[in-house]
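Page 42, continued from yesterday. The earlier attempt failed because a stray header line got pasted into the input along with the sequence. Redoing it now with the clean sequence only.
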Amino acid sequence: MRRKISRLLVLAVFLFGLVPAVAAAYVPAGFIGMAPQGPTSAKDYELMRKAGIRNVRMPLNWAEIEPEDPYFFPQNWAHFDRVVELAAEAGLQVMPVVLGTPKWVAPESTVLPVFSPWQRRGWARFLRDAVARYGPEGEFWEDHVKLDYLPFERWEIWNEENIVSFSSEPNPAAFARLVRISGRALHGADPESEVLLGGLFGRPLQIPPNVGSGNFLQRLYRAGNVRPYFDAVALHPYVADAHAMAAQLRNLRRIMRLHHDGYKKLYVTELGWGSQSGPTRWQRGLRGQADQLSKAFAILSANRVRWRIGGAWWFSWADAEGGCSFCTSAGLLTENREAKPSWYRFNEWTGGNPDTVPRLNLHGEAGEVEVAEEAGVGGD
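This time it went through. Structure tokens are written below.
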């Protein structure tokens, strides 16, 4: 009986009292944001606020706003308006990642809208309209005066454009054209806006047709006349072990310096691991997910100034079906909003309150012992 109680006590300490590996490390308030997946409610955003989150990264899908040619049909901002409204009610600022070509522009949403004057004009106009709605003098804020005034400041252009999941043909020269169009439109509509190169997938599998992040960035610079049109580079350093992301960040920083962009910031706009135990390298189990989170934030904290890291967004808030192989278990919370071990590590870094959600419900003693053994605690 004593041994059983001892196991459970050790397990409780592991699950609900976790501390970062580097307790003295520091990141400024607001440095760590959230990249949710799946539906998010008003309660979710309020819980994010209590967890010390100030910024959420959300997809602004052109194809959803303009499913039909806006010359003939009205734009539909309703869904995204609701996202911004819920976030602002909790005091959270939205950073949009703008992507998704509508079918009236190209046959596939992953086709970059740069191959005809029609496509280029449509994309530029959509960006200007988005600034007019959500930027510093945006219509949305005029219509919602009771909300906190949190206009969009950063705009991330596309997502993982170096892999076929989001770009039908990863092409640095074509993406350079998209960046030029985007920079002109966004800086013209709001000179203070910050334009981010969409988060590059760090070391993708299946090269080719995918292109490594460093190779893609190098070739984008070589396309010419691109530097004035973006203000920062974003990376998604998905790796098996957090220590490996340092090489990816150093490589991008080296390339940026080589092209006289050393002063520009790097952002990590997606970072995460799954809490299931395999089969992919990004699924590390409950304990592994928490450990990788601590390692990653420790690395970013230690090198934040040297690498000019502007912020990091954890992927993701809660588990959700669908998406990539590890996405279903990438949340800090379960689908039922129960706290995983990684939730407690996350709140240690953000200074948030981890006691706002119920603890992970482990069903039965056998499940408790199994998790304890996976964590490497208890036993003979």
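Notes: The first strand starts at residue 32 and ends at 34.
Reminder to self: strip header lines before submitting.
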